[in-house]
Amino acid sequence: MLKLGVNVDHVATLREARYRGREEGEPDPVAAALVCEDAGAYGITAHLREDRRHMQDRDIWRLRERIKTRLNLEMANSPEIVGIALKLKPDIVCLVPERRQEVTTEGGLDAAGNLTALTDTRKRMNDAGIEVSLFIAPDPAQIEASARIGSQIIELHTGAYAESFGSAVKRDAELERLIAGAKQAHNLSLKVNAGHGLNYQNLPLLHRVPHLVELNIGHSIVSRAVMAGLGNAVKEMLALMETYGG
Ligand code: PXP
C-alpha cells in the first residue's frame, strides 16, 4: 500500500498569518501532526525554510519530540540548516531547492549540477543515521545524478503533472515522464517517493506510476480540512453566542 507523509507546513502558514513573532498561536502544526498520525499517516513532513516563513525552529524540535511516526525534514542544502538537521536527527531529510541557482528548469533540485556539495551532505547525514531523499524532476540526468550522489530515496516532483491536469495531452505526457522516471530510479535501486501539488482529483491517475513507496501531500489535505471542518467551527462559535443575555 502507498504510504502517506503529511506536510504540515500550511498549518504553520495559517498560524504565522496572525501570530508571527509570537511564541505561541493557533493552529499548532504539532497538534495537527498528531491528528494526522491518529488518522493513519505514515510520517510527518515539515520544511524548515531559511527565511522561516512557516515552520519555526521550535516547531521542528517539538515535532521531533512528540510524533510517533517518521519525521521527514525538507531543507535546503545550506550550512545553517544542515547543522540543525544533524542535531535534530530527523528520520529522513529531503533536500529541496530554495534558491534560484539550485533549481533545474523543471523545478526540482539540480542534483546533476551540484554533485560534490550534495554528496558531501548526503554522507554527513548518513553518518548521523539519517536517510537522504532528493526532490527532483522526473528527468533522466537528475535521477542518474541522485544515484551517483548515493541518496537512498528520490522524491519525484509531481508539480508539472498537477499543473497540466486540465489538458489530457499534457497530463498524459507528464504521467509518462513520471512512469519512466520511477522505472529508471527503481533500476538504480533508489526508493521512489513523489509529491507536490497532489490532490483529491489528480491522485487516482498517479496509480499508473510504478514503484512508488510514499507520497508527500500538504496543501490539498489542509485545504480539505478547512472545508470539512468549517461548518462545525461556525456551530461551536454560535453555541457560545447563544447564551448572550444582552
Ligand atoms: N514534497 C516536497 C519536496 C515539497 O517541498 C512539498 C511542499 O511544497 C510537498 C511535497 C507537498 O506539496 P503540496 O503542499 O503541494 O502537497
SSE layout:
Layout: E1 3-7, H1 9-19, H2 29-38, E2 43-47, H3 57-66, E3 70-75, H4 79-88, E4 92-95, H5 115-127, E5 131-136, H6 140-149, E6 153-157, H7 159-163, H8 168-187, E7 191-195, H9 203-206, E8 212-217, H10 219-242
Parallel strand pairs: 1-2, 1-8, 2-3, 3-4, 4-5, 5-6, 6-7, 7-8
Helix pairs in contact: 2-3, 5-6, 6-8
The chain binds pyridoxine-5'-phosphate (PXP).
Question: What labels describe this entry?
Answer:
246 residues, alpha/beta, TIM Barrel, eight-stranded parallel beta barrel, 10 helices, 8 strands, binds pyridoxine-5'-phosphate
Explain what this protein looks like in three dimensions.
The protein has 246 residues and is an alpha/beta fold. It has a single domain (3-241), classed as Alpha-Beta Barrel (TIM Barrel), CATH 3.20.20.70. It is 48% helix and 17% strand. The chain is built from 10 helices and 8 strands. The protein has helices at residues 9-19, 29-38, 57-66, 79-88, 115-127, 140-149, 159-163, 168-187, 203-206, 219-242; strands at 3-7, 43-47, 70-75, 92-95, 131-136, 153-157, 191-195, 212-217. Strands 1-2-3-4-5-6-7-8 form an 8-stranded parallel beta barrel, surrounded by 7 helices. Helix 2 packs parallel to helix 3, helix 5 (115-127) crosses helix 6 (140-149) and helix 6 (140-149) packs parallel to helix 8. The radius of gyration is 19 Å and the shape is globular. 40% of the residues are buried. The model has no long low-confidence stretch (mean pLDDT 97). It binds pyridoxine-5'-phosphate (PXP). Pyridoxine-5'-phosphate binds at residues 7, 47, 74, 94, 96, 135, 155, 195-198, 216-220.
